[in-house]
Design brief:
globular, four-stranded mixed beta sheet, 428 residues, 23 strands, alpha+beta, 2 domains, UDP-n-acetylglucosamine1-carboxyvinyl-transferase, Chain, 15 helices, binds uridine-diphosphate-2(N-acetylglucosaminyl) butyric acid
Length: 428
């Protein structure tokens, strides 16, 4: 029942350190299950999606030991006899990585149909296409996805019908120890695809081409242990970039890979902010005047769908009209109703939002419909006149580490408060 109370109107100033990438962490942790020796994973963001994945691995039977706040040692060398709990799988999309990882080690896997954010239909046909091509029977019965090797798994050529992050990673997990060569075509190229490939290669895998349209995986028999540090989160970095631009702020965002941020940097610059790139930091200085910008989300290296709502929040106060087109997800504009409560003028028609800039937003009670929309509402609230109350903050806690402290460190007037519900009130 916690909420954020945000008083708008402060320019964000100072430095912020970016955490490890959530979407890399939730793939690399399950990937450890494929290793024949223990592994140490560093720079994990401590967010609820990551702790949920760790909980699932514990239930499966992996040994997990925290070395420090963001470093775990995972020993999955024994028999894993537990199952993926349905309530965990329903809450987290990345539960599908246990299909590829468990198939790789046990030649079979059964995982409850994964859930995740309500941002459009989320089929797994491309994941199943991979498992079938490698030699599995696949079915979905009673809400459980079951895959089982018919005889021996063997390498195959797979052309994806659609560019998909999850199925590309699952294919690498499934193929890493599959005899022969697996060629994956029309794959996703996001930084976390490369990070998973780098992690597996650091253990002795033979994966080439990650970051291009074609990935070739030669199956190996054995993966040794190792230590690996998760790549910085480009979406968290982009969120602070948008926040700096929206609040006429001046922020140095540290611990980033500027190359991963190119498409975001381009749009932030077009909105009128100044962006300076350093080796592992990026500085954004917002301008009083925000220019309208048109955006179309695309797979990497295009503009990421996971930054669409934060940019829309910035463009709400642009001096002119912006067009934002979502081309990855069917319904990722649910937060627009919430921005309208704050005075934004946005028309949505299917996958296109027309954002007519207004001079000012005003604080309002709003709810987060999903994680990135949550980040957008924080940005909007920071720029609004008056106070906003933001509910359903568990969404943002899924993927933004220490979000309140990080914004406070930049001077934001943000507090997290506990509002007891009727039942809790009676118990107090
Ligand atoms: N798709 C299919 N069939 C499939 C798989 C995907 O049709 O078998 C479609 C989806 O419906 C969607 C498109 O392909 O229209 C792309 O889906 P993708 O598989 O790339 O998405 P995902 O792996 O489920 C990951 C991120 C999302 C991010 C997308 C796109 C994780 C855990 N999630 O999802 O992140 O939006 O890639 O970049 O990595 C977020 O962090 O806020 C988030 C939603």
């Amino acid at each position: 029942m916690d909420k954020y109370i945000i008083k708008g109107g402060t320019r964000l100033l100072g430095r912020v350190q970016v955490s490890g990438a959530k979407n890399a962490a939730v793939a690399i942790l399950p990937a450890v299950l494929v290793s024949d020796e223990p592994c140490i994973i560093e720079n994990l963001p401590m967010v609820s999606d990551v702790t949920d994945i760790i909980d699932i691995m514990t239930v499966l039977g992996a040994g997990i030991e925290f070395i420090d706040k963001r470093t775990v040692r995972v020993d999955a060398t024994g028999v894993l006899s537990g199952g993926v709990p349905i309530e965990k799988a329903r809450g987290i999309r990345a539960a599908y990585y246990f299909l590829g990882a468990l198939l790789s080690r046990d030649r079979r896997a059964s995982v409850p149909m994964p859930g995740g954010d309500d941002i459009g239909t989320r089929p797994i046909d491309q994941h199943l296409k991979v498992f079938s091509a490698l030699g599995c029977d696949c079915d979905v019965e009673y809400g459980i996805v079951g895959i089982k090797a018919k005889k021996n798994l063997s390498g195959a050529r797979i052309f994806f019908d659609i560019v998909t992050v999850g199925a590309t990673i699952n294919a690498m997990l499934a193929a890493v120890k599959t005899p022969g060569q697996t060629t994956l075509e029309n794959v996703a190229k996001e930084p976390h695809i490369v990070d998973v490939a780098n992690f597996l290669n650091s253990l002795g895998a033979d994966i080439r081409g990650a970051g291009t349209d074609v990935i070739k995986v030669r199956g190996v028999n054995f993966l040794h242990g190792g230590s690996y540090s998760i790549v910085p989160d480009q979406i968290e970095a982009g969120t602070y970039m948008a926040a700096a631009a929206a609040t006429e702020g001046d922020i140095l965002i540290e611990g980033v890979i500027p190359k991963h941020l190119e498409s975001i940097t381009d749009k932030i610059r077009l909105s009128g902010a100044t962006v300076e790139e350093y080796d592992d930091a990026i500085r954004v200085r917002g301008d009083k005047k925000i220019s309208p910008v048109s955006i179309k989300t695309m797979p990497h290296p295009g503009f990421p769908t996971d930054m669409q709502s934060q940019m829309t929040a910035l463009l709400c106060r642009a001096s002119g009209t912006s067009v934002v087109t979502e081309s990855i997800w069917d319904s990722r504009f649910k937060y627009v109703d919430e921005l309208r409560r704050m005075g934004a003028k946005i028309q949505v028609d299917g996958k296109v939002a027309v954002v007519e800039g207004v001079e000012r937003l005003t604080g309002a009670p709003v709810r987060m419909p999903d994680i990135r929309a949550g980040a957008a509402l924080i940005i909007a609230a920071l720029t609004a006149d008056g106070t906003s109350e933001i509910d359903d903050i568990y969404h943002i806690e899924r993927g933004y580490e220490d979000v309140v402290d990080k914004f406070k460190g930049l001077g934001a007037d943000i507090e997290q408060i506990f509002i007891p519900d009727e039942v809790t009130k009676r118990a107090l």
